[in-house]
Design brief:
2 domains, 67% helix, 0% strand
């Protein structure tokens, strides 16, 4: 409760500084009053499908890396074949390679520029499993 009291004091102190500070103070007050479920929602940062802005940015980064991987390493003719190949690569990497690398902060030098290096970068952004349907939509 000390944090709540502190936030209320800060909101009161900044409310009269300028219009932007007054807006921030109002948002804090709305959240503390329980009018909105989260600060993301209170600040208007909840976007498509109720995702928070940080999660949406993470998904966008992941999707860009997925597309880049598909363009660089997968040369199947049809989008469906590319999606199948990518789903298979993701599954194999997740089950065979990722457990050995998950604790590493940076890609091992011998993997940089390789398929596994690209997948390492992808999994560092988000290692949540992604289905073939979603892959197909992303890499079209």
């Amino acid at each position: 409760m000390r944090a709540v009291a502190r936030l209320r004091r800060v909101a009161t102190m900044i409310a009269d500084l300028d219009p932007d500070c007054a807006w921030v103070a109002q948002v804090i007050d709305r959240r503390l009053a329980g009018e909105v479920a989260s600060l993301d929602a209170a600040f208007g940062l909840v976007r498509r499908g109720g995702l928070s802005l940080p999660r949406e940015i993470q998904n966008d980064r992941r999707n860009a890396v997925l597309r880049e991987f598909a363009d660089r390493f997968l040369h199947q003719v049809t989008p469906s074949a590319r999606a199948d190949a990518l789903a298979k690569e993701l599954f194999q990497f997740r089950s065979r390679v990722w457990p050995r690398l998950v604790a590493r902060e940076e890609c091992p030098p011998d993997l940089i520029g390789t398929r596994h290096g690209a997948l390492f970068d992808l999994f560092k952004i988000d290692d949540t499993p992604i289905g073939k349907k979603q892959i197909s939509r992303l890499i079209g």
